Sequence to fold (703 residues):
Amino acid sequence: MATSLYITTTKSRSGKSSIVLGIMQLLLRNLHKVGFFRPVINPTKPGQKDHDIDLVLSHFYLGLTYEDTYAYTLDEAKALIQAGKQNELLENILIKFKNLEEKCDFVLIEGTDYIAGNEAFTFDINSAIAAYLNAPTLIITNARKTPTNELLALTELAVEGLSDKGVDVIGTIVNRVDEEQKESILSALKDNSSLKGGLVYVIPENENLVKPTISDLQKFLGAEILYGKKATNKKIDGYVVAAMQISNFLNYIQKDSLVVTSGDREDIILSAMATKISTAYPDISGILLTGGIYPSANIQRLVQGWEGIPVPILLVRDSTYPVIKALNHMHGRIDPDNPTKIAAALGIFEANVNTSELRDKLIKRKSTKVTPQMFEYNLIQKARKNKQHIVLPEGVGERILNASDILLKRNVCDLTLLGKESEIRAKISKLGLDLSGANIVEPEKSPLFQEYVETYYEMRKKKGLTEELARDAMADVTYFGTMMVYKGHADGMVSGSINTTAHTIRPAFQIIKTIPGSSIVSSVFLMCIKDRVLAFGDCAVNPNPTAAELSEIALVSAETAKIFGIEPRVALLSYSTGSSGKGVEVEKVIEATRLAKEKNPAFPIEGPIQYDAAIDPMVAQTKLPDSEVAGRATVFIFPDLNTGNNTYKAVQRASNNVIAIGPILQGLNKPVNDLSRGCTVPDIVNTVAITAIQAQAGKGIKS
Fold:
């Protein structure tokens, strides 16, 4: 098995960080422990971290400290080379690398950044390090504004230069290609004799990655954000220096342009803001005030009251001329706190790189361990293979909208957002998101509304429901979304970030109902611990299930585990293992175990069993040495809600690297899942992916 991969570039601004994200995610899908290493990093200010190390460590939990991940700064490396101590440099890099390698199954190595004017030095140091570490190498080439023949020559020279130094070049990725040239460049590269046998991929330019955002601007200039902090992910496409009268200035407004003006030009500030409500002018990205001049108190008061217009306004101390000079050197970056850009980068990588081919080139065997990162990645991949349509009733929620942006960028599923359309679109604009791929439906204005009212009335009229009450119910987004799933107009529903669990589940009980042979709806949490995934049930729905209900929960939880790639070995938990204890609660678990085995003898089932005997092989050898479940259980069934809810939270909080995904509802005819009202954006993304996979399973689709 290859133990490392070195990524190097031929030019500056190659988009290397987006490639690193894509390959790191690919590796984490297949390997238990992946390290990240930069032999030489750019010099940083005191307290500042290397951008790419910070990005990788923030987005992927690797269990590494910042100090583990690099050996030298560029200035330190240059000083050693100039002093004739290159061998010392390489030896110390190797020692640092080997220390990291001992902890990992694989180490992804990112080479030194190319800096204008230092191309030859950068190439030499990268090739020397790659050769010294004996690391297979992938070359990244920046194709932006480069003729095809020049691009081919540059790539060929890089391959030959690295090969001459003993580096094993496994392939090349040409990044930032014009979409129109993609196929011709790919064909020319594959026909090039010096590149044959190696992997070749071409990734087109994406303006959402390369264009800077207001957030990039704030960090680059150290600007103060006066207003519009929630819209800092808006991208910037050019600058307008407003040093003229309003009537002339407005002629130069372009979509997503940044207006640069001194802080005392209040006429420009107001007219620039006014373009946001005028259909005659394109939307600007923001306003940058120079000279350290704050707007007057009256103007500030006016702006503060203009809440419906999300225009970021920033302030810098420098005058206009040096600010414009600085802006000419600013470019977009993928920052750890920008999940939208990260999702876009991963989506573009996966769309243009044959990840199966690359994986096979890098990895000769697959780890049997499953990390939380692997599991979350696999959720997305499974959902994407057979896209389902998920409805989100809480379309006005900011977390829901941010999650929707990520889901659409990753191409996970089709989405419908429910709610007042004008309010949803205002929120989308305020957050600077692109949700053009989502359906937005206002229930009472939907052409399906009357049909849904009639269906619900027919379902419930024997229980005293009137047509008026049916109409009121269907005006509720949760009931409308549930009816969409029932009618097949959506494949699943996720709610609960705003609404209560009862409000999410009640319509499902009334409309979708339970699967044949099932008497109750229950839940599981998927507990992603250090190196495996476990299913805990029921931790969210049933306070005190009977023995028959407990057996049902055990079997349906085993089926749910199978859907998500967990081999079911079911442990029905109690304070007693085997015949060691007595009591009513133990008897309930004994009976539940008997019923479960009787209903489905195919699943390995053990009970009653204590948690330690179920999970720890050493304890199992003492308490139940002949059990095929003890010490190896993957599905844990708790005797009541009190035990289950407290246990899953205790396990979750016992380690920083435990992720609890759920609750996942089971037992319904079609999937509906409930979010916690304290859920995060990643929680929503995971739950939607899970719902899509449940929908696939319900249709008999193999993902």
